[in-house]
Amino acid sequence: MKKIEAVIRPANLEATVFALREAGFRCFSVTETRGYCNGKRKIAHAGGEEFEINFFEKVKIELVLDDSLAEKAIEVITVAGYTGKSGDGMIFVLPVDEAVQIKSGERGVSAL
Prior knowledge:
alpha+beta, 6 strands
């Protein structure tokens, strides 16, 4: 099993969720988060003051799925999240040793 963690722009969330659902991925989590990227700073103005914003709003989509579906999920997220601009996001793929469904006690891929 694999865990896909995709950190994307909030503006691309709806399109990415739609694309995942259309591709058959029905179970995933979405978390609001903030990202920091060294060297990428934004200057903001408020109350006549100028200040740096070092954190950028992002969302993280997490899926756990069978190994055979990982590349498909990566492709769907990449296409849906692409703007071609810096800050489009990152996708991380991690191994998952076990999944256990709390309600039924099912384990492995069948628990998903």
